[in-house]
Backbone:
């Protein structure tokens, strides 16, 4: 399967929002797909990638780097295109770019005890770490 990974642009907005609306829960204001897209695209740090197959947007990934740790967010593959290696391609792209920026450690969070996701991330060398994840809403 020929799948192209490229930087996300503003013209991807409708397709990205539709994918996130289909794949992710939108139970919290900070998970609103439109707001998430606008904030990341305007942040303009070149760490927002999409996977395209025959001009169809089939996957997304957001990475973040603050000079200390790298983070992975919003990895989503269109359900019709799963188990074809596209999630792996997006993860490898994000990790390569983070590494090129000098990042020495990449973190990500999984909601709940999702064994399928754990299996997926383990194929990429991620391990479960003994941490407690905390957060605070700023709204
Ligand atoms: C998780 C996700 C990104 C995987 O994307 P994908 O393109 O299907 O993954 P890949 O094809 O690259 O999978 C690589 C390997 O990971 C493992 N894997 C992937 N999905 C799996 C699943 N559902 N169950 C078990 N193992 C899985 C397999 O070992 C797979 O290799 P194989 O197909 O040769 O057996 C995709 O299922 C998805 O978008 N899920 C919903 C959104 C989500 O939960 N995102 C993560 C937020 S933390």
Residues:
């Amino acid at each position: 399967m020929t799948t192209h990974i490229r930087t996300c642009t503003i013209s991807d907005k409708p397709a990205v929002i539709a994918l996130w609306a289909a794949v992710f829960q939108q139970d919290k204001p900070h998970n609103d797909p439109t707001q998430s897209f606008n904030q990341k695209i305007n942040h303009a740090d070149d760490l927002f990638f999409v996977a395209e197959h025959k001009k169809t947007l089939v996957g997304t990934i957001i990475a973040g780097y603050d000079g200390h740790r790298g983070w992975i967010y919003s990895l989503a593959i269109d359900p019709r295109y799963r188990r074809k290696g596209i999630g792996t391609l997006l993860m490898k792209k994000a990790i390569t770019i983070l590494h090129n920026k000098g990042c020495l450690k990449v973190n990500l969070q999984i909601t709940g005890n999702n064994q399928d996701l754990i299996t997926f991330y383990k194929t990429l060398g991620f391990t479960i770490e003994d941490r407690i994840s905390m957060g605070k809403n700023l709204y």
In short: Strands lie at 4-7, 48-53, 56-65, 70-77, 106-107. Residues 23, 75-77, 82-88, 110, 116-117, 119-120, 123 surround coenzyme A (CB under 6 Å).
